[in-house]
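User:
Note these tokens:
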Amino acid sequence: EAVAAAQDAGFVLVYPRQLPEGWIATRLDFVRGERPAWGINLLTDEGNFVGLRQEDDDVEDLLATYVDENPSEDGEVTLDSPLGTSWQAWSDASGDHAYSTELAPAGNAETGDTLLVYGSATEADQEELIGLLVTEPLEP
């Protein structure tokens, strides 16, 4: 419902077309304004955390906010994703992982948003979520 309402207001959001079996969404965030931001907090079937953030911000700022001040850059990775983007892998000293990508500009925007998938869940769980991410319009 939150995604459909945001889309109806003209925003292009990246969201999972479905959640993996046993996963639950625990929080949705949507900030309107000149620099809208969107996020979902999820728990896997094993209770591990995965977050998704889409913002008009630099990846370094998102990483510092949601992952670590100085995460390790683990290199570019190819992931099976309907978004068709390349992904950058990250990790921190405590074992958290993250993947980031830059989205193409939408509407009248001059730059695209940064998309970050991150958390304590395994890389495989995060990659499974990435494989479910779409921007398709939902029925209102």
